[in-house]
Predict the 3D structure of the following.
Amino acid sequence: MSKTVEITKEADQFLKKIEELSGEKITSCIQCGICSGSCPMINEMDLTPAQSMSKTQLGQEEELLDSKSIWICASCFNCKVRCPRDLDLAKVAEALRQVVLRKAVDKINIDAISPEEMMELPQIALVAACRRLTN
Amino acid sequence: MAMKLPYYPGCTLKTKAKNFETSTLAVAKELDIELVELPKWNCCGAVSSIVTDDLMHQLAPARNFVRVLEMNKSGIVDNEYRLVALCSMCYNTLKRTNLLLKNDHEKLKTINDFMYLEEDYNNEVEVVHFLEILRDIGFDKVKEKVKVDLSSLKIAPYYGCLLLRPKEIAIDNTEDPRIESDLLDSLGVKPIDNPFKKMCCGAHQTVQDKYAVARNTYTIVSGAIKAGAEAIITSCPLCAFNLDNRQREAKELYPDFEGVPILYFTQVMGLAFGVPEEELGFDLNYNDPRPLLREKNILK
Ligand code: SF4
Ligand code: SF4
Ligand code: SF4
Ligand code: SF4
């Protein structure tokens, strides 16, 4: 049985916004799943990388922005080097994060890190986490 | 005469990964390479800016390129525009901005306009990783400097992500890198192939979810152990932290997990070249490699 999905104007605008921010032609994703099979963080994700791509195609803003996956992506570019359509999912995840972060939202609270942990963590981890997870 | 190269340390090499810097400077000296620290360098930003409208974060790497121009102008280096990075993350971030500006003249112009107090940057600089310098001078030259027999050591290379991905910045074949095992070969160490050598450790996720990283640590380190490795080498202070310190959390999750020491590749080079132990800084490695090295009669 076929299922019809209606794409609203808002959904289409959301897709266009993410395409523009990421610079990726998200509609060219063929849902082959290679990205999901290559992702080192997939066990921690609620949406697989391929699912995130299809939901972006459909402009399902809420599900994407509320997902754990966009915050768990480590920007390792493994999906990017393997995607047969040369799509960069790390850029797509970053674009999705930016939509949230630019509303002055922080996804990690640095103050909540204990002094012991703060002392142990290398700067590179803290700077990278702040860059990817705070506004 | 020593080959003088502009060198970008990055912040972690000045603190938590001081041993990466001291061991590198020592082995470079043995090879007649002088790594000259960039005057007034600034943090590269750790991760590259990957959305299309965020030019602001390309500024930090670009400013460091201007420092290379100044080094040439003032004669600190002589017509040398290669900028050497050691930390894989710094390498990746600097290199991506470097390529972006080479390919996008409009963005280059905007950046130059914004940095109007600096000298104009016109894509003179090429960002390279220290491993590439070693490959360029030749691993046979590295071999000539070996004084200590390390043939009893079995070490697995670990590349992680940022030396190899995305393809345009890769220092070696993205799917089948050899550069670290070629280096180990030249040092007389037996390289062990770990099927998880290119798997990401989880990077900055270590700040918000250390157990997610510990699960990756477990996979990567166990892969090396199963293949027969007694230690793992890396070139990134964040990989090192995640593979080394997070073995503690991995042991909580998998009680029968036994770890191995994690070394910077330059620490192994230092051992082979007979560099004094103080310069190799093993006290900063979380899992102390010295018991293994003493057992093998490499250290006293
Ligand atoms: S690998 Fe590329 S084409 Fe395949 S599902 Fe992932 S994004 Fe789509
Ligand atoms: S870049 Fe993100 S989505 Fe892609 S493989 Fe790495 S962690 Fe997974
Ligand atoms: S990446 Fe770090 S180590 Fe590299 S300079 Fe910047 S935050 Fe530091
Ligand atoms: S810190 Fe992890 S994310 Fe980085 S290069 Fe190292 S493996 Fe990749």
